[in-house]
Amino acid sequence: MQRIGILTSGGDASGMNSAIRAVVRKAIYHGIEVVGINRGYSGFIDGDMQSMNLGSVADIIHRGGTILRTARSREFATSEGKTKAYKNAVQAGIQGLIVIGGDGSFRGAADFYEQHQLPVIGVPGTIDNDIFGTDYSIGFDTAVNNVVDAINKIRDTATSHERTFIIEVMGRDCGAIALTAGLAGGAESIIIPEVPFDIKEICAKLMRGVKRGKLHSMIVVAEGAAGGLKVGQDIKTLTGTDTKVTILGHLQRGGSPTVLDRVLAARMGAKAVELLMDGQANKAVGMHCEKIVSYELETVFKNKKELNIDILELAKILSI
User: Fold this and answer.
1) Phi and psi of 51, rounded to 5°?
2) What pTM value is reported for the model?
3) Is 128 a catalytic site residue?
4) Mean pLDDT computed over every residue of the chain
5) Segment 78-128, tens digit of pLDDT
6) What mean pLDDT comes out for the span 190-211?
7) One of 128, 130, 141, 261 is an active-site residue; which one?
8) What tens digit of pLDDT does each residue of 41-50 get?
């Protein structure tokens, strides 16, 4: 292996830059050249690439987002699109590819390998933390900390005005952010896509708190479970309480990555290079029980990562 390519795809996640830095420096340490591919699979098709050296990844470990930028590409889903990308890879002398991204990015990598047999390694980078085979994905810890920071600040206002606040967070199909941040932020109720909820039960809990003198309540809602505005209106209608809604949106994605995300990304990026050096292909890296592991890329699509619902039950107990 003399030259490898690296790209980031799908939604950005804080810690991606730490992974890029690790890939570039680990590869160069072992005498391997690195080609950075800009704007994900879209840039791969367009041949938007450049050689990367030690200086190109200096002072990026603390930065959110991705210096390689990211984009979604419908064309790459076609056979013709993947062929264009492969021709660019051959022209650039790329002998292996590292893809940092989520489920969709991994599917694209697996399909690309199946069609052209260019070795690919997937590095999980998604704030949803919904990739099977790894305990944590790059960006999840930072996103959760962003949400908890927002909850802490909103709580000050909620207490001052004696209000109920509904905080809508990201998570179309997975409630990991809502669940983790809700527990850490002391939310009275957490609404996630994986578990049906009863708005009347939530309202009854709120009113019990009001009767015992509780000054405020915080409810965290994953966007895929229910719209924050709808939940807020329903609660206001059923209880008559002063209810406000905050939709955090893309605020959750950015910011300087946490220590956990920086270290996780560095370890995963280095492992991806090692796998290519060992002649591995069509694999993904992950963390399991504090160890960096590798597994078949296809297992990501054949299995669904289960959310730890015990955390929801604990949150209910602690918020009585």
Assistant:
1) -70, 145
2) 0.96
3) yes
4) 96
5) 999 999 999 999 999 999 999 999 999 999 999 999 999 999 999 999 999
6) 94
7) 128
8) 999 999 999 9
Dihedrals phi, psi of 195, to nearest 5 degrees: -130, 125
pLDDT of residue 109: 97
Q: Would you state the pLDDT for residue 320?
A: 84
**Domains of the chain from N-terminus onward:** 3-139+257-302 (3.40.50.450), 142-253 (3.40.50.460)
